[in-house]
Amino acid sequence: MTEIKFRQDKNFEECICQALISDHPFAEQMVEVLNVEYFNIEYLKEITKLIFAYYFKYKIFPSFKILGSVILNETPDGVLKDQMKGYMMKIHKDPLNGDIEYVKETVLDFCRKRSLAIAMENSLALIEERKYEQISLEIKKALQAGSERSVGHEYRNHFDARMQQDVYVNILPTPWEEMNKIIRCGGLAGGKVGVVAAGTGIGKSHYLVDIGAHALRLGKNGVHYALEDGDIDTGRRYDANISGISIDNLGDHIETVRQKMEEVKGTLVIKSYPAGTASVMTLKNHFNHLIMRGVRPDFIIIDYAELLRSSESNDTKRFNIEAVFREIVAWSQEIKVPIWTAAQINREGMDADVVTHKHLHECYAIAQIVHLFVTINRKKDGPSPEIGNAFIAKSKISKDGVVFVMMINTGTSRIELLPNDSDVSGGGGDGDSEENEMSRLRQKFKDFQRKHSSSPSLN
User: What pLDDT, in 10s, does the model give residues 287-311?
Assistant: First the structure.
């Protein structure tokens, strides 16, 4: 009865194979668990064999496009090849979306049942041969199918793995060398989440765009989820950053902007959702869809996470926000991709020169969840609104309590960080020396504008 039931479950088997293709972390978990013989459908067996063979040879899973090429080149012509091609076309048009979580949740049960069904079939032959003890071993082995094989990180046996220089993967450096020097591996590594926190209009989005644009210059591919601004507005900020031309003057320098954009090595996908309509699951589904299309992002930017819906239903807004950040951290660890996002500080923090722990309040719990928590602030109505401070408030991957002088050009979404080796916060000291320091910083900002800008309006 069990065998007949599974042979009729064609759709579920197709969904398992589709999840292997679209979700590489899931596929990695299933390499030692999923026996291709658990499939009753031949074209699914063959596709899964190709996926696993590719992984064992290249230590990475094939993209959707490469898998299609492998099928065309390595499968003999015939009915089976046509079925494999037809299946690939079908799943390209019909992504799993939310169904992938159900598949991942129930696939181990599928493996156990199929393994047991196969063991029972094999037992029939063993009964005729009177190999009763072997029947017991077959059943016991089948009941262990789908169980986790790794016991974890064994401290003594895995010493060499810890000492490898490339223990951190997919590192995303920030645009600021002073910050990279402090972060343990020179940037935000895969599986880590960074947050920039600030008040409204201080520069969170500019900070995130500067990180994304820097990554593109390094040849990295990324996806930027815009939950506050639309994709066009976000794209124009990238245009301004990459070209050095103020966002207000892009229309007067179209060919220059186009040329600068073509010089960038990396690729970027910008996906916008209205605030409050998307959840982390929504972003995961879109991410998996990109992988299905052969696009594998090296980094993710979410502008910003507090505008996502929580999968939990808490009466308190703070608890829902905390749940969102926990989901983002879990997602980053699952896909081994660095994620940068932003958070909102309260009004009290906006009046401070440097936003420290005492100004975080509801953000404090977020700072405990993520790996790197940076605050920025500036006096927009002050004599030097382009000058402020950045502060590493909490970090699991670097020193914290470090303050930088921040210079921001909102026209080009570019930021520069300098070591804060002098007191520019107005917290006492000689008035003349303080004024001299501010004059030095203003001159430094003008030099910063000239260095990074192609637009005459910024000089």
Answer: 988 887 888 899 999 998 999 988 7
